[in-house]
Amino acid sequence: MSVIDVTNVSKSFDKIKAVQGISFSVPKALCFGLLGPNGAGKSTLLRMLYGVCNRDHDSNASISVFGFDPQKNSLAIKAISGVVPQENNLDDELNVEQNLNIFARFYNIPKIQAKKRIDELLDFMEIADKHKAKIRELSGGMKQRLLIARALLNNPKLLILDEPTTGLDPQVRHLIWEKLRNLKRSGLTIMVTTHYMEEAFQICDTIMIMNKGNRIIEGNPQRLVADHIEPFVLEFYKKEAYDSVFSMLGSQNARHETTGDSIRVYSKDETMLRDVVRVLKPGEFFLRQSNLEDLFLKTTGSQLNAQQ
Amino acid sequence: MRNNNSQPYPVFLIRLSSVWYRHFRVYTKSLISNGLPAFLEPLIFLAGIGLGMGTYLPRMQGMSYLTFLATGLPMTAAMFTSSFECSYGTFIRLEFDKTYEGMLTAPLLVRDLFIGEILWCGTKGMFFSLAVVCIVALFGLVPMPASFCACIIGFMAGVMFASLSLFITSFVSNINHFNFYFTGFLSPMFFFSGVVFPIQNLPKALQPVAEFFPLTHVVRLCRGIDLWSFSVTMVWDFLFIAAFCVLSASFAISRLKKRLVL
User: Fold this and answer.
1) Beta A81-84 vs A62-65: how paired, if at all?
2) Beta-bridge partners for A257
3) Residues of A in contact with B97 (CB under 8 A)
4) What would the pLDDT profile of A143-172 be if each residue is shown by its tens digit?
5) pTM (2 decimals)?
6) How many Cα atoms occupy the beta-carbon half-sphere of A199 within 13 Å?
7) pLDDT < 70: residue spans in chain A
8) Which class for B221: exposed (0-12), middle (13-18), buried (19 or more C-beta within 10 A)?
9) In Å, how far is B227's CA from the nearest CA of chain A?
């Protein structure tokens, strides 16, 4: 049984089509990731899941979360879901504990139970020593962990996160990923948007790459990379270096991509790339395995769009 | 495929009380700096105008000028505190702090947010009108204990100006536009609603206009209760206040909903 079922959903803002005919479903206890550049429609899609954005009217379109339509019964969905928004909206006037207490009231959790739950969650997110701290005293990473703790107060069955680790340092990102994997193991379904390919690799079972409101590709991240992109990449940082070896790069089994002044050559033929590298100077190139980022750039185009 | 194990969501009144509690906690966190101006302003006006000019003025509606002012000023205290909360306060929560966006991730509807907020403003109106009554009572300016009842009208004033201010806020896209509301509407109302002088002293042609100012009605009710003298006009006052609250709150909520649920 799926926790989330989205069928043929579109959303227009004035003349902009933010989301165009998207369908997907998320099974229980899995993590589903939405990837895409800014303006791809990821956040709009997330917001539709808990009823703060209405889909375009269309009798063929539907959204079901735990069997409820967010446009008709958002309360039922929100009572068993947790949402971590993109922007921090903690109350600066209150301390950590008080911020959580306010939300415990929203969920109507009895006082004693709320206190226990808050202790547990601050412990779980490793900010147990910050009970009485003011919000202004917290680092970006701590605020984010507090927002996740807040979203977990009601013991949700679904966790929705909008770019949970944007702008955070690597240690905190790894900590958050570890926590999300823990939660998933305990049966929580997770829906996440991200720009980070690494994040998708680390936590998502399925990803959907979106661009300009459209679905580009969907599947298991590892498998998508294996199926849709050449396994090796040779990156050049100077056009001259690239030109000097251009004749050695067989045009038959290599794909060339240019972004600004860096050029990437993708190929299945590792031997050929290694031969090329031998004549280059260190610092002019980087030979590596391809990853989700390459797939992302291939599918969404390597040029910036107006909203980036 | 309905999930039978789902926790039921909190009922309407619980949701309202949780919103009320949120505002209560945030506001009382810095009560002195938040509350002192709202409390002192009417008293300063009372001292400056009442004590100063009042000695030159005749009795008004059968009472000394100081008493006349002291029976109207609790309502302006309620008006200003509630109007600030639901204009600048609401706008900041809406556009800068993204407070409502956060609250809407919890089991709350847009309607819950704003009805809860209006009730919170009613509470503030009651509290500040009571605070003013307590001070003026110390100087024996208002009849006791009837004047304590005026805080109920203070609650109504709080609710009414919260609804109106939310309605105004629903149109505002730049926080500076509230200057028009305060200087262009609330300040004139302060002078022409029977607080500073009776509306009977207004030019004949303008008297009916004063009847459309929301402040006029709460001031008349407040003074009526203070002096324990009731009239049929007060029924009209009650009806006006009720209709005004219902209309402005429902328009405000439906307009604000469009800004929060896209």
Assistant:
1) unpaired
2) A264
3) 89, 91-92
4) 999 999 999 999 999 999 999 888 888 888
5) 0.87
6) 29
7) 250-252, 302-308
8) buried
9) 41
